[in-house]
Design goal:
By secondary structure, the chain is an alpha+beta fold. The protein contains four helices and seven strands. The chain has helices at residues 21-24, 30-39, 94-109, 125-133, and strands spanning 2-6, 45-52, 55-63, 77-85, 115-121, 137-145, 148-156. Strands 1-2-3-4-5-7-6 form a seven-stranded mixed β-sheet. α3 (94-109) links the parallel β4 and β5 (115-121).
Length: 157
């Protein structure tokens, strides 16, 4: 069963997986994302662990910082970033189940949030399709990311 929980240091050993070269160009590892939060002393970013049963198998960050304003004018939005699943557990629907649970997780823990925004690289077709499948919308907004053009997507809560 897939569950989302706020990251705890005890989760870290299960999140030290390596992404293949293609995936690594599109997203940060848990270690990279946590380091960036620590460097910025970012109290507006919340790391989240994805569990399959009791095992940490994935990771993402919910970020209330000003980066979200590149995507939307909505100050009550949240940026979802650094989403990844351990390659050993990919292809089992865990990412989709986790993305479906994000909405309820946000409603329970961040009541003021009414929109989720994210960027997905245009060449990351499987991620783009996943986001569309779980209700994210793309209305033509784009930007250039570290690995090329990205679609800016959103989901109203």
């Amino acid at each position: 069963m897939v569950k989302l929980k706020f990251f705890e240091q005890k989760d870290f050993p299960g999140l030290t997986y390596t992404l293949d070269e293609q995936q690594a160009q599109y997203t940060a590892t848990a270690e990279q994302a946590l380091q960036k939060i620590e460097e910025r002393s970012d109290t507006l970013a919340f790391p989240i662990t994805i569990f399959e049963d009791e095992d940490p198998v994935g990771f993402f960050v919910l970020d209330f910082g000003n980066d979200k304003l590149e995507f939307t004018d909505n100050h009550n939005s949240m940026l979802l970033r650094s989403f990844s699943i351990n390659p050993k557990f990919q292809g089992k629907g865990i990412g989709k189940k986790a993305m479906i649970q994000v909405d309820e997780f946000i409603r329970e823990n961040f009541k003021e949030c009414d929109e989720i925004v994210l960027a997905v690289n245009q060449n990351n077709i499987s991620a783009y399709r996943l986001y569309l499948t779980v209700g994210y919308q793309y209305e033509g907004k784009e930007r250039i990311g570290r690995s090329g053009p990205q679609y800016l997507m959103f989901k109203k809560l």
